Amino acid sequence: MSVTFHVPQDAAALAVGADAVAEAIRIEAGKRGIAARIIRNGSRGMLWLEPLVEVATPEGRMAFGPVEAEDVPALFDAGMAEGRGGLGPTEEIPFLKAQTRFTFARCGVIAPLSLSDYAAMDGWKGLARAITLPPAEIVDEVTRSGLRGRGGAGFPTGIKWKTVLEAKADRKYIVANADEGDSGTFADRMLMEGDPFHLIEGMAIAGMAVGATHGYLYTRSEYPHAIAVMEAAIGLARDAGFLGPSVMGSGRAFDMEIRTGAGAYVCGEETALLESIEGKRGQVRAKPPLPAHEGLFGRPTVINNILSLTAVPFILDKGAAAYAEVGFGRSRGTMPIQLAGNLRHGGLFEVGFGITLGELVNEIGGGTMTGRPVKAVQVGGPLGAYFPPALFDTPFDYEAFTKAGGLIGHGGVVVFDDTVDMVQQARFAMDFCAVESCGKCTPCRIGSTRGVETIDKIAAGRDVAANLQLVEDLCETMKFGSLCALGGFTPYPVLSALHHFPDDFVARQTAQAAE
Amino acid sequence: MTARDSIDLERLGAIIAAHGHMPGPTLPTLHAIQEAFGFIPEAAIQMIADAENRSRAEIHGVVTFYHDFRQAPAGRHVVKVCRAEACQAMGGEAVAKRISSRLGLDFGETAADGGVTLENVYCLGLCATAPSAMVDERLCGRLTPDKAERIVAETLS
Predict the structure, then answer these.
(1) What total of structural domains would you count in chain B?
(2) Where are the domains of chain A?
(3) Does the beta-carbon distance from A15 to B123 stay under 8 Å?
(4) Residues B87 and B148 in one domain
């Protein structure tokens, strides 16, 4: 008999032994005379189940996980090759069933580099429609969808595109920002590894919309697997006519290439990223001019996050209304939220805006892996605020998070149990800023180092009240005196730690008084 | 003879020339040089500056800005341990401490015999299978101090 097995080759699955599992399946199937076809797909995003093996059956794909290589013979004994003995149908797993997957619909399902798999699941439909439309109508569709920048700033994507469309220039560029440096985020990586043509389609649509003929995908050197998949996908798409001088036979040109960063967090900031592609130090530019007017190599440039660009094919294919129908307030559509850190069910959860932080952590995430109470949840990466459980009713929405003194950023949610020391987390935020500062703005460059020193004094119980005031003042200066989010937002984790978890800080004072 | 003395200038020149046609060739050139030589040789800075018609100071500025570019060769093995928040939340600091003490190195150091370099990394994007590390090309997730020590020992043996 012949059986199809799906074993992810997503980096997170590889990190927990997916290659060994694939090899064990090949060997075990051979011993039993089963003709095994092993497909290396991306991840479904249920990362606590990785390596998640799926077996194709007439009733659909059946899930097994987490599988270890040494479990494989016993799993075969229990009927794995017939789809028995595991978690049942993958699509019925509550974590997956509860999602609204617009952007990640194919991720983990298809073989990442199969053009036929991609086309069979609505691939290229958005682009096929875009090439029939005048540029202004593509832009209008995106504007009406309500899509906002998924990198964190939440700026309306359609308005950004309109600005570039209306700019006059001999050349325009599309830049895809996959410099996903926030701890707790991995959506860009998963998408590039699991559904690479999707990003190519999104970039090509952007090119058609604004009249740009060349695109750059800027990603991280820490993502070698994603780079390899994207390189291969670009080659295949070009050979098949989806990239090149006449995209899908439209007579309109668009091509793209990858640029790899070199370990600088600040290059995720859009103007630093442009400097980096140009071969310079990744230092932030003052705005104006906006990149939409004078961006890469001085030309009008659309620079969008991967999750913004990959929302676009759905919008063009199904229409703006289908996208905008989902969401909350002014945050329309879905957000691929990444649940990470100390959680039982960590992974990628794509859902319409409006779900509360508490639902994400306690219901979807299943509470802490360690079984201890949740103490703090950092949302939005190293520049995001720490939320206490008291704020768990905050809905996942740009405006609601701003109002609660935080940000949603790129959608990363990192959970900590009650063993975390918030003084150390505040210190880490300052230290990270000091290490990664590009050096352009004094409050960020110097302030972060002074911040580390001052928090060290607090940790040692020295003049706690006066030093806390000093940290507050310093944060104020950084917030208003820095050009970009690195210096400007480092106060979020620091001040939220201080304001929501005062006991951790005051304990130092008491300890000192007791001496 | 050390790696520094034995730089093949012809090969270096060929790598720089091969990237000359690109818009913004500097980072791709530096990545290719580091791939070939294991670090950015001193001689490369002037050669890139000449090729791109930029100042030596500018190129030096680029090389030293980015954490990835090395000005001296790394050890034969490179161990990168994630120190960012998601890994911290899952006991990453205990993993980092164990690896550091097993190797007898602080983060950022290379062993005197050139056997291994220990580095921080701020996020490998494996945040739901934390704590994570990268040992040479191998990604490692769900680490415990014991598991990390075993992997490092296997790699070095």
Answers:
(1) 2
(2) 2-97, 115-324, 328-417, 422-514
(3) no
(4) yes
Cα B102 to Cα A111: distance, rounded to the nearest angstrom: 40
Whether B25 has its CB under 8 Å from any CB of chain A: the answer is: yes
Architecture of domain A2-97: 3-Layer(aba) Sandwich (3.40)
Q: Read off the tokens for A331.
A: 């945050």
Of the residues B65, B85, B113, which one is the last residue of a structural domain? B65
Q: Indicate whether B135 belongs to any domain.
A: yes
Query: Could you write out the DSSP letters of every residue in A221-265?
Result: TT-HHHHHHHHHHHHHHHHTTSSBSSGGGSS--BEEEEEE--S-G
The rounded distance, in Å, linking the Cα atoms of B67 and A394 is 37
Q: What is the DSSP string of A316-373?
A: HHH-HHHHHTSEETTEESEEEEEEEES-SS-EEEEEETT-BHHIIIIIIS-S-SS-SP
Tokens of B3: 């790696």
B60 and B124 assigned to the same domain: no
Domain membership of residue B84 (yes or no) is yes
- Nearest 5 degrees, angle CA A365-CA A369-CA A372? 105
Q: Which residues, numbered 120 to 179 in chain A, qualify as contacts with chain B under a Cβ-Cβ cut-off of 8 Å? A: none
- Residue B88: inside a domain: yes
B65 touches chain A (CB under 8 A): yes
Q: Measure CB to CB from residue B86 to each of A11, A183, A436 and give the nearest one.
A: A183
Q: How far is the alpha carbon of B106 from chain A, nearest alpha carbon, in Å? A: 17
**Do B148 and B90 share a structural domain?**
yes
- Rounded to two decimals, the ipTM of the complex is 0.95
Residue B59 near residue B49 (C-beta atoms within 8 A): yes
DSSP secondary structure, A459-480, as one string: HTTSSHHHHHHHHHHHHHHHHH
Number of Cβ pairs < 8 A linking chain A and chain B: 153
Do B57 and B109 lie in one domain? The reply is no
A260·B141 Cβ contact <8 A = no
**B122 closest CB neighbour out of A183, A279, A343:** A183
Nearest Cβ partner of A341 from B61, B122, B130? B130
Q: How far is B111 from chain A (nearest CA, A)?
A: 22
CB atoms within 10 A of CB A329: 12
Do B53 and B91 share a structural domain? no
Q: What is the CATH number of domain A422-514?
A: 1.20.1440.230
Residue at token pair 């630093």: A272
Considering the domain architecture, whether residues B50 and B96 belong to the same structural domain is answered as no
Residue B69 to residue A262, Cβ atoms within 8 A? yes
For chain A, 515 residues long, give each residue's pLDDT as a single digit of tens: 799 999 999 999 999 999 999 999 999 999 999 999 999 999 999 999 999 999 999 999 999 999 999 999 999 999 999 999 999 999 999 999 999 999 999 999 999 999 999 999 999 999 999 999 999 999 999 999 999 999 988 999 999 999 999 999 999 999 999 999 999 999 999 999 999 999 999 999 999 999 999 999 999 999 999 999 999 999 999 999 999 999 999 999 999 999 999 999 999 999 999 999 999 999 999 999 999 999 999 999 999 999 999 999 999 999 999 999 999 999 999 999 999 999 999 999 999 999 999 999 999 999 999 999 999 999 999 999 999 999 999 999 999 999 999 999 999 999 999 999 999 999 999 999 999 999 999 999 999 999 999 999 999 999 999 999 999 999 999 999 999 999 999 999 999 999 999 999 987 766 655 55
For residue B123, the enclosing domain spans: 77-156
B60 touches chain A (CB under 8 A): no
Q: Closest CB to A262: pick one of B66, B127, B129.
A: B66
Structurally, what CATH architecture does the domain formed by A328-417 represent?
Roll (3.10)
